[in-house]
Write a structure and sequence with these properties.
Oligomer: single chain
Radius of gyration: 26 Å
Order of helices and strands: HHEEEEEEEHEEEEE
Strand order of the largest sheet: 7-3-4-5-12-8-9-10-11
Helix content: 25-40%
Shape: rod-shaped
Number of helices: 3
Distance between the termini: 86 Å
């Protein structure tokens, strides 16, 4: 009789041990998945698509491009925000992946400066509008009605290519 009791006890202990091991393995797998998710970059998170870029004043635009150091919207991209300032909100039902561009915000701005494109630059102290004359490594030169404005890159919150009469105009 005692032998059957011991067999039952060992069987119960074995099942408990197996359950503990299985739970610990599940927890370890969940911890690993969580840890790997902590290393995902903004680009990696946006890559799956379905995000809007918050642009201030309650405005939102679909993320259509992720550059080396910026997040952009438009076809072609017309609104860019430095990646370090980007706030992106998931948009249910939208899964269009953004284009990945290996160009920097400086490179993009230099392309716009080549054509003296009309832009609006949003900064912490207000906006500056006019023709983009130069995009240097540390500042932009925007020439408007009142003359030239030098805008340090560190103060650029948003750069918008202004297309008169279009949805891309701010």
């Amino acid at each position: 009789m005692e032998e059957r009791g011991l067999d039952g006890l060992f069987s119960s202990l074995s099942a408990s041990f197996d359950a503990v091991v299985e739970r610990e393995e599940d927890e370890a797998a969940a911890d690993l998945a969580f840890s790997l998710g902590q290393d995902r970059s903004l680009e990696g998170s946006l890559r799956r698509g379905g995000f809007d870029l918050r642009i201030g004043g309650g405005g939102r635009r679909p993320v259509t491009e992720v550059g080396a150091d910026y997040v952009g919207s438009g076809h072609p991209v017309a609104v860019v925000v430095p990646a370090r300032l980007a706030v992106c909100v998931e948009t249910p039902g939208s899964e269009t992946a953004p284009r990945l561009a290996r160009i920097s915000m400086l490179g993009l701005a230099r392309g716009w400066a080549r054509t003296r494109a009309p832009v609006e630059v949003q900064t912490p102290v207000g906006s500056v509008g006019g023709r983009l004359e130069r995009a240097t490594p540390d500042h932009l030169i925007v020439v408007g009605v009142g003359g030239a404005s030098l805008v340090a890159w560190g103060s650029v919150e948003r750069l918008t290519l202004v297309r008169r009469g279009s949805a891309d105009a701010p």
